Amino acid sequence: MEYTERISNQSILGIVQRVCNYVDPRLMDHGLRVSYLVWNMLAPLGTYTDEELRDICFISIIHDIGAYKTEEISRMLDFETDTIWGHSIYGYLFIKYFFPLRDKASSVMIHHVPWNELEQQDGIDDQMKEIVSVLFLADRIDVSMEVEHCTWEESLRTIRAEAGTRFSPKAAALADNLNLTFPLMTAIAKDDRYHHALADIPLTQTQITDYLKMIIFSIDFRSRHTVTHTVTTTSISYELACLAGLDETMRDKIVCGALLHDVGKIGIPVEILEFPGRLSPQAMAIMRTHVDITDRIFDGEIEETVRRIALRHHEKMNGTGYPLGLKGGT
User: Fold this and answer.
1) Alpha helices, DSSP H only, in 244-313?
2) Do 9-199 and 222-311 share a fold?
3) Assigned fold of 9-199
């Protein structure tokens, strides 16, 4: 099943950001700052196409997505950490099988490998080593400043001291030439050049579908039942639309709405999503908020009919559904 409605790059990024923030906003903000640092280091080189830079920025934004599957979210943001492989491996597997930029999955697997080890790896080409070394350094800069509360000057001193061992000499030199304003989240919001780099080359329709499916699969990272449910619901919805004699345009909108209808479950605790029996009234009240979360995630980003289809899937003809209690004919 394909998502057929047009969505801009910025809307895709906005949706991804909101989805990730419902799991843990620390990682999404961290990913945005790392992406911004990576772009500022690589763009001046002039050796990457605009499309390559866009894709590198996208992968940098979600480079820690594997932490959603582990208990590493708090520990991994330490400047010195031994708990790197769990989220790195899960992130690699997620991107390898569920992300549109599968060819860059290895960069996530090894994004915590120090330069003196990465340099010795024969099976990795020079460009990938450059991307990984810059991603690693950008990650460490952000942790140094945001978690350790070091100044930019203090962070630079650490980078210079460890250039050639922990950090690539080239990456360290690129960091030394950065001209940044802080805090980075404010700089990101104001930097039109960065936003143009992400938005100027439109995603193809296949890429749009892949990104939206990635969001659905990210819920499966939390609950193995959700994706099976979404795929089944989408297929049945399409068949029912055909049987009802709806035209192709409406069938497509129904497919798109069905694909996205449960995205808000990303914000529901796993113990509720996977509870084996009937939910208590209190837990059911929490479960029902997934519709409101879906609305907030897609607000202003997707076509209105598709949004309404996604949001009305728990309404009932007799008015006993939720969240609005709509009745047939209203």
Assistant:
1) 248-260, 270-273, 281-298, 304-311
2) yes
3) Hypothetical protein af1432 (1.10.3210)
Q: Which of 25, 33, 35, 119 is nearest to 67 (CA)?
A: 25
What does each of the 330 residues of the chain score in pLDDT, given as a tens digit? 677 787 888 888 888 878 877 877 666 788 899 999 999 999 999 999 999 999 999 999 888 877 765 544 555 454 344 556 777 877 777 778 777 788 888 888 898 899 999 999 998 999 999 999 999 999 999 989 988 899 999 999 999 999 999 999 999 999 999 999 999 999 999 999 999 999 888 888 888 888 888 887 777 666 666 667 888 899 999 999 999 999 999 999 999 999 899 999 988 887 898 888 899 999 999 999 999 999 999 988 999 999 999 999 999 999 999 999 999 875
| Closest alpha carbon to 226 in 257, 253, 266 | 266
Count other Cβ atoms within 10 Å, centred on residue 249: 10
Q: Where are the domains of the chain?
A: 9-199, 222-311
Superfamily of structural domain 222-311: Hypothetical protein af1432 (1.10.3210.10)
Q: Determine the Cα–Cα distance for residues 193 and 209; give it in Å rounded to an integer.
A: 26
Global confidence as pTM: 0.82
**Cα distance between residue 71 and residue 21, in whole Å:** 17
